[in-house]
Design a protein that fits this description.
26% of the residues lie in helices and 31% in strands. The chain contains four helices and seven strands, in the order αβαβββαβββα. A seven-stranded mixed sheet has the order 3-2-1-4-5-6-7. By secondary structure, the chain is an alpha+beta fold.
């Protein structure tokens, strides 16, 4: 690598990562964790990459893993609370704003450790989050 390429790579400004996010499955109703349907939803969520450790990038994109030096937030994906099961399964729902319009896949809701929320969805193969908790982190 030439000196100028090295200098350009060093000076390139990429948006900063915001925080580490640990997403764990949770249930609003205790009996749901023993229900075969919700056990299947949890397996689907794991296979789809909705559970685990992520780094939240400045644009709201999630990437697997964790980054040293960033604060870590915990989140619960309530697997027995609508619309999360529909989002995990990729089912489509009617858009309430346009009942006659095309159906859409709902966003999953993550409840953070401070009870604020992030909305999770996929754009292509990349998971993204948005919501008031993300906006508050960007301002801080």
């Amino acid at each position: 690598m030439g000196v100028w390429q090295w200098v350009r790579r060093l000076c390139r400004r990429s948006p900063a990562d915001l925080f580490n996010l640990v997403v764990e499955p949770a249930y609003a109703i205790k009996a749901s964790s023993r229900n075969p349907y919700f056990q299947g939803i949890e397996r689907l969520a794991r296979d789809a990459g909705l559970l685990g450790e992520f780094v939240v990038e400045a644009g709201g994109t999630l990437r697997q893993g964790r980054a040293e030096g960033l604060p870590t937030r915990s989140a619960r994906l309530m697997l027995d609370v609508y619309p999360n099961p529909a989002a995990v399964e990729g089912r489509s729902v009617a858009d309430y704003a346009e009942g006659d319009g095309p159906r859409r896949v709902p966003r999953a809701t993550l409840v953070l450790d401070d009870e604020s929320e992030l909305f999770l969805w996929f754009e292509g193969k990349r998971a993204r989050v948005a919501g008031p908790a993300l906006a508050a982190t960007k301002r801080a």
